[in-house]
């Protein structure tokens, strides 16, 4: 009998045992993939707007600690930043959360106000065009079915200012909410409509592009060195340092690695116990001529089957969960991430089985004649 | 049962593998639970610390404090609604604040309020504030003068309050004038006129039904307000419901995996001991006695693993607290233990079928 056949015969006769293990591995794979999907989608939903805008450097009010929602840049600071050597272009960028009425429903939405033609424009417009004038907006394509499709009109719940959607962006949401981009003038109108007591509408950020010959990093450093009370970040730094992004990353990575550790332990302990239980039979097989490679091959086949079934189950459960989950944001995971995690689970599963493989490899056929249970003499 | 306990004491190594997996699963559940509690408590303290039963927002604010505006006229309508005993104004400003002797700016939620609540004393004099104790981690001490917002509005810390944060920013509770000044300087576009608040905390008459009073308030204001019970207002904060359900399901799946690990381990162990159990049955032991032994071992392994896992999490929690919104409550630790014990009992029950099927006659051949 070939090692694979031996392995399959045993699995067929102990369906519950192997089924439980494959089920456990499947659920662990699901936990890893689902959390990877939540992590990726959360980050994109949190800071997609920062990544997908054209300014290479963003300037925050220092007390906001690179949190857009808490940032304003004062008029003096705007003038001081404009005067820094190496600034090529500069434009105000406003951000605020508004209650919008879309498709008859009240919805929280984040609205960015940018200067057309200046730094800070949305870069990932996949359909339609950028807003050209007052009352026009581009919206996140992820929310098109929630009343943000091209040609639809949404209004602010307070003040009733209408906005017509003229374009759609992808992966450009902010703060896990529908995200709209309007001209800065429209943004000012919205702010004043929502709060008639507003004394001024200041930009949340300054969107800055470096002059030719200046790198974004050098420009950010120069702005921080010359202007008091502001923090300047390159686009990628601003996305990585946005409020909560580092904590979300750390938390999820701790969870995902703990689950990976459990995969290693569960696979490892199952096959070690199984090997210890089968030790007399395996010893007998060795004594009647089965080479070590044959037994290790059978064990390897069983590990592969369990891991394979676990991975298939995990991917299927993840696909179902992602389709039906209501985490408040569109959850997706790329095939690359699935493949990476599947490969890592395989490696961890195989690493966990090393102890069992070594035990099988160390079986001494002579034991067969020394064990009373096998008819030998103690 | 004695036999089961003796085996555990004499051969603990036999249970080490399953125990180690359960220690890691315990750590995972406690870490997830601590993170969930930290996120929930750190975001909702301002609303939970209200003693009033109802919170009134403007209807276009979708229960968001920072977007809500209640004018003095609407407040008068609310106060005149039958069933309303008392009304007080509430508002927050999310700002950065300088701390004396510290390089980093602290994230502060400046809370303007009019009346004392559970755990929050009466508003301090103008220019002073009660700080949430979590701000201690940012170097804040009583007596410090913090500089709030870009205008560095000075506010002296009068003393500590507990569990009074908002959206992960340290609560600093001040009288309405100070809050209005900070709000106007930090967000000129959110400036509110004298007498206008973001929300109202409404205490209902003794014996009145809060839900009915809430509807009456919204009717009285002609739909200008959206009135929620305190708990509903907490749950309507952005992301709170989704956060709770996502974490709860991940914790549930983790507990299920722990159950599978226990089921797997004890079914293997039972298989290994089929001969021994047959002998025990042959000399008079009942299925119930043998199965009780299996359950006792499963529960003991789960409890001991839990203790190890909980100790590790408690030891590393100071590090976690400094980097993450992590807060491990005694109630979370207790519910995780109960969950694990239940899981252990259910998991070990998988072996019952095998124990029942053991034939005492097989002991003699």
What does this entry look like structurally?
The complex is a heterodimer of chains A (378) and B (365). Chain A is of the alpha+beta class. Chain A has 2 domains: 2-46 and 245-369, no CATH class; 49-240, no CATH class. Chain A has 10 helices and 10 strands. Chain A has helices at 3-13, 15-51, 75-82, 184-194, 216-226, 235-240, 245-287, 292-324, 335-352, 354-361, and strands spanning 57-61, 87-102, 105-114, 125-128, 136-140, 153-156, 162-169, 179-183, 205-210, 230-234. In chain A, strands 2-3-8-5-7-6 form a 6-stranded mixed β-barrel. In chain A, strand 2 and strand 3 (105-114) form a beta hairpin. The longest helix of chain A has 43 residues, at 245-287. The radius of gyration of chain A is 30 Å and the shape is elongated. The mean pLDDT of chain A is 88. Chain B has 365 residues and is of the alpha+beta class. In chain B, 50% of the residues lie in helices and 17% in strands. Chain B has 11 helices and 9 strands. Chain B has helices spanning 2-10, 16-48, 72-79, 176-186, 210-220, 230-235, 240-272, 274-282, 287-323, 330-348, 352-357; strands at 54-58, 84-98, 106-113, 128-132, 145-148, 153-161, 170-174, 199-204, 225-229. A 6-stranded mixed beta barrel of chain B has the order 2-3-7-4-6-5. In chain B, a hairpin with a 7-residue loop joins strand 2 (84-98) and strand 3 (106-113). In chain B, helix 1 crosses helix 9 (287-323), helix 2 runs antiparallel to helix 7 and helix 2 crosses helix 9 (287-323). The radius of gyration of chain B is 28 Å and the shape is elongated. The mean pLDDT of chain B is 90. Chains A and B meet through helix 2, strand 2, strand 3, helix 4 and helix 7 of A and helix 2, strand 2 and helix 7 of B.
């Amino acid at each position: 009998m070939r090692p694979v056949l031996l392995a399959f015969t045993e699995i067929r006769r102990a369906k519950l045992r192997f089924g439980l293990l494959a089920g456990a591995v499947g659920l662990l794979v699901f936990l890893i993939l689902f959390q990877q999907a939540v992590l990726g989608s959360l980050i994109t939903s949190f800071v997609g707007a920062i990544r997908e805008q054209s300014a290479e450097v963003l300037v925050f009010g220092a007390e906001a600690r690179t949190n857009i929602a808490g940032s304003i840049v004062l008029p003096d600071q705007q003038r001081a930043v404009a005067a820094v050597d190496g600034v090529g272009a500069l434009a105000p960028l406003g951000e605020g959360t508004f209650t919008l009425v879309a498709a008859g429903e009240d919805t929280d939405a984040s609205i960015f106000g940018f200067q057309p033609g200046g730094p800070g424009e949305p870069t990932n417009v996949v359909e339609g065009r950028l807003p050209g004038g007052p009352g026009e907006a581009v919206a996140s394509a992820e929310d098109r079915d929630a009343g943000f499709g091209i040609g639809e009109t949404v209004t602010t719940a307070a003040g009733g200012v209408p906005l017509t959607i003229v374009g759609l962006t992808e992966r450009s949401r902010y703060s896990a909410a529908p995200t709209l981009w309007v001209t800065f003038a429209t943004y000012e109108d919205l702010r004043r409509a929502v709060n008639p007591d507003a004394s001024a509408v200041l930009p949340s950020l300054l969107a800055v592009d470096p002059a030719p010959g200046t790198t974004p990093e050098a420009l950010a450093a120069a702005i921080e060195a010359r202007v008091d009370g502001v923090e300047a970040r390159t686009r990628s730094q601003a996305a990585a340092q946005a409020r909560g992004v580092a904590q979300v990353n750390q938390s999820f990575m701790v969870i995902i690695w703990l689950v990976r550790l459990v995969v290693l332990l569960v696979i490892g302990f199952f096959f070690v116990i199984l090997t210890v239980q089968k030790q007399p039979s395996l010893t007998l097989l060795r004594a009647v001529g089965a080479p070590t490679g044959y037994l290790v091959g059978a064990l390897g086949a069983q590990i592969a089957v369990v891991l394979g079934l676990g991975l298939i189950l995990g991917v299927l459960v993840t696909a179902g969960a992602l389709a039906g989950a209501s985490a408040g944001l569109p959850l997706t995971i790329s095939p690359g991430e699935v493949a990476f995690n599947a490969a890592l689970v395989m490696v961890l599963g195989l690493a966990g089985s090393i102890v069992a493989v070594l035990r099988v490899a160390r079986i001494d056929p002579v034991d067969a004649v020394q064990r009373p249970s096998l008819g030998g003499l103690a | 049962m004695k036999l089961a306990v003796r085996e555990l004491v004499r051969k603990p190594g036999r249970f080490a593998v399953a125990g180690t997996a359960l220690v890691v699963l315990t750590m995972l559940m406690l870490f997830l639970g601590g993170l969930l509690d930290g996120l929930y408590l750190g975001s909702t303290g301002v609303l939970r610390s209200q003693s009033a039963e109802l919170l009134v927002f403007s209807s276009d604010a979708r229960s968001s404090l920072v977007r809500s505006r209640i004018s003095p006229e609407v407040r008068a309508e609310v106060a005149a609604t039958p069933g309303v005993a008392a009304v007080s104004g509430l508002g927050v400003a999310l700002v950065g604040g300088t701390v004396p002797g510290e390089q980093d700016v602290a994230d502060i939620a400046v809370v303007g309020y009019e009346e004392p609540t559970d755990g929050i004393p009466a508003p301090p004099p103008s220019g002073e504030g009660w700080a949430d104790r979590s701000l201690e981690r940012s170097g804040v001490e009583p007596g410090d003068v913090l500089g709030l917002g870009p205008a560095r509005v000075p506010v002296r810390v009068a003393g500590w309050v507990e569990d009074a944060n908002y959206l992960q920013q340290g609560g600093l509770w001040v009288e309405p004038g100070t809050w209005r000044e900070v709000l106007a300087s930090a967000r000129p576009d959110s400036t509110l006129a004298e007498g206008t608040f973001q929300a109202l905390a409404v205490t209902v008459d003794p014996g009145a039904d809060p839900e009915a009073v809430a509807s009456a308030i919204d009717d009285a204001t002609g739909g200008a307000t959206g009135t929620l019970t305190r708990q509903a207002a907490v749950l309507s904060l952005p992301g709170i419901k989704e956060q709770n359900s996502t974490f709860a399901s991940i914790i549930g799946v983790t507990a299920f995996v722990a159950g599978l690990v226990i089921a797997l381990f004890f079914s293997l162990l039972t298989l290994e001991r089929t001969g021994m159990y047959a002998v025990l049955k042959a000399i008079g032991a009942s299925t119930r006695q043998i199965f009780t032994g299996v359950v006792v071992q499963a529960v003991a392994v789960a409890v001991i693993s839990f203790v190890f896992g909980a100790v590790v999490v408690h030891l590393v929690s100071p590090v976690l607290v400094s980097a993450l919104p992590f807060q491990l409550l005694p109630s979370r630790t207790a519910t995780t233990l109960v969950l694990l014990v239940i899981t252990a009992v259910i998991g070990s029950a998988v072996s019952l079928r095998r124990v029942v099927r053991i034939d005492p006659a097989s002991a003699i051949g």
